[in-house]
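Module 6 notes. Inverse folding takes a fixed backbone as the condition and produces residue identities as the prediction. Think of it as a translation problem where the source language is geometry and the target language is the twenty amino acids. Below is one complete input and output pair. Work through it position by position during the lab.
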């Protein structure tokens, strides 16, 4: 029996636009959290996440231009949850859990897209998925800290609290 070899698929316009839209939403969320959180450690983490998402957005725009496709608006699931985060309607723990779930979902989606695609697209998707994995690791740390201190995101004294511990009451 002869195996039929098929050419690897290339990323579709819909796939690129979905990744782009997710990146835009993530950027807005991370940027807003970086601006509004009093905890300097957490705010700095979200600021770096926003930088990552901006760089990802630029890469996706370059990919869209290179493939000759066009950008179009894509509706994402859970857009309302992003809005709840931006409006402060979720607790810090719920926010962190949601962001971890979103980053994991996107990491899995990028890995799934990478299977069976061209080597060029695979490298592109591996790069993007690794960024998501890095975010997940840092968000998991923040989740553990919110479990120890539900007001962790509000802590202006975060560095001192980590070094010296909570003040005895």
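Target side of the pair, the amino acids:
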């Amino acid at each position: 029996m002869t195996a039929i070899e098929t050419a690897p698929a290339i990323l579709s316009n819909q796939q690129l636009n979905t990744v782009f839209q997710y990146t835009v939403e993530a950027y807005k969320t991370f940027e807003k959290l970086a601006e509004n959180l009093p905890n300097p450690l957490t705010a700095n983490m979200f600021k770096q996440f926003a930088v990552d998402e901006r760089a990802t957005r630029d890469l996706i725009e370059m990919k869209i231009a290179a493939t000759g496709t066009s950008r179009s608006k894509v509706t994402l699931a859970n857009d309302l949850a992003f809005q709840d985060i931006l409006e402060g309607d979720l607790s810090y723990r719920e926010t962190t859990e949601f962001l971890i779930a979103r980053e994991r979902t996107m990491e899995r989606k990028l890995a799934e897209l990478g299977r069976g695609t061209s080597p060029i697209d695979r490298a592109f998707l591996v790069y993007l998925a690794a960024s998501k994995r890095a975010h997940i690791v840092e968000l998991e740390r923040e989740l553990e800290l919110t479990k120890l201190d539900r007001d962790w995101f509000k802590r202006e004294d975060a560095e001192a609290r980590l070094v010296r511990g909570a003040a005895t009451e």
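Reference fact for the lab report: The chain has one domain: 13-70+79-150.
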